[in-house]
């Protein structure tokens, strides 16, 4: 695996995607995209609808096989693995469209996720811990079909946490939430980073991305068009022209 080109370090990144192409028929959804994420980082992945963000997530997490390119995680190549193997390797993800098991409780759902790593007795303990961590401690015995959207979003993050990942791919986990709920999720992400979890997140709420991210990667029409610190990306004229619409550094 090649050495990282991350500023200020020579160690390999936790995640590296190199020259990823994903094509559906005549449409190239992801076109020669490369990115690194170092352990302990929060990296934002932004771009207009149809830019290829979720497809890139699919390729990294094993739900889509890239037509070209490689994906490395924790020093091992994973682009030939399936989603279950990749999750067991320590790379978890959430989904933009939340789906719950309507006849299971919160505790049962989190227990099922924890069984990726541990046996039943320990999985139940993990489920209880995670439920409290994501704000569902008082709703552990509630059926998932009765959860509000914010609670379903919290459970989606909880399922990923329960697999004990080193890194989580977050796909628009804050979409549809009220400002106070967004603030709660941001605090949760920061606290999890402090506990050693790395994040690559797709999010359309620019104030969130620019506030929480250490670096931001921008896609447009399937290609990477910019990368850098939030303030650099916010002032990039190409990014402003195709996505942001105004210089966020002046907002």
Report the mean per-residue pLDDT as an integer: 91
* Structural class determined from secondary elements: alpha/beta
Shape: globular
Spatial sequence of strands, sheet with the most strands: 6-7-8-3-9-10
CATH homologous superfamily (4th level) name of the domain at 15-97 and 165-250: P-loop containing nucleotide triphosphate hydrolases
What summary fits the major beta sheet? 6 strands, mixed
Terminal residue distance? 41 Å
- Any idea of the CATH topology of the domain at 15-97 and 165-250? Rossmann fold
Tell me the CATH architecture of the domain at 15-97 and 165-250.
3-Layer(aba) Sandwich
What integer value in Å does the Rg equal?
18 Å
Number of helices: 9
What order do the SSEs take from the amino end to the carboxyl end, as H and E?
EEEHEEHEHHHEHEHEEHH
Tell me what portion of residues adopts beta-strand conformation: 15-25%
Q: Assign the CATH class of the domain at 15-97 and 165-250.
A: Alpha Beta
Enumerate the spans where pLDDT stays under 50 for 5 or more consecutive residues: 1-10, 246-251
Please report the total strand number as a whole number.
10
Protein described:
- The protein has helices at residues 53-61, 83-88, 106-114, 120-133, 149-162, 179-194, 206-212, 230-234, 237-244, and strands spanning 15-24, 27-37, 42-46, 68-73, 76-77, 91-93, 167-171, 198-202, 215-220, 223-228.
- It is an alpha/beta fold and 251 residues long.
- The protein has a domain at 15-97 and 165-250: 3-Layer(aba) Sandwich (Rossmann fold).
- The strands form 2 sheets. A 6-stranded mixed β-sheet has the order 6-7-8-3-9-10, with helices on both faces.
- Strand 4 and strand 5 form a beta hairpin.
- Helix 3 packs across helix 4 (120-133).
- The longest helix is centred in the last third of the chain and has 16 residues, at 179-194.
- The termini are far apart.
- Mean pLDDT is 91; it is low at 1-10 and 246-251.
């Amino acid at each position: 695996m090649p050495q990282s080109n991350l500023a200020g370090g020579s160690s390999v990144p936790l995640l590296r995607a190199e020259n990823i192409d994903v094509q559906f028929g005549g449409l190239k959804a992801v076109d020669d995209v490369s990115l690194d994420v170092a352990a302990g980082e929060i990296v934002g992945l932004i771009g207009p609808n149809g830019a290829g963000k979720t497809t890139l997530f699919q390729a990294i997490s094993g739900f889509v096989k890239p037509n070209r390119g490689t994906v490395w995680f924790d020093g091992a190549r994973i682009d030939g693995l399936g989603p279950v193997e990749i999750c067991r390797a320590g790379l978890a993800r959430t989904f933009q469209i939340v789906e719950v098991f309507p006849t299971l409780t919160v505790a049962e759902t989190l227990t099922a996720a924890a069984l990726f790593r541990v046996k039943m007795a320990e999985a139940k303990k993990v489920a209880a811990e995670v439920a409290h961590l994501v704000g569902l401690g008082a709703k552990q015995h509630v059926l998932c079909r009765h959860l509000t959207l914010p609670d379903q979003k919290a459970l989606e993050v909880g399922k990923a946490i329960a697999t004990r990942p080193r890194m989580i791919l977050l796909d628009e986990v804050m979409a549809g939430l009220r400002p106070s709920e967004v603030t709660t999720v941001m605090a949760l992400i920061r606290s999890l980073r402090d506990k050693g979890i790395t994040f690559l997140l797709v999010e359309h709420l620019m104030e969130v991305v620019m506030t929480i991210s250490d670096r931001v990667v921008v896609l447009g029409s399937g290609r990477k068009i910019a990368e850098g610190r939030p303030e650099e990306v916010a002032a990039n004229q190409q990014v402003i022209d195709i996505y942001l619409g105004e210089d966020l550094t002046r907002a």
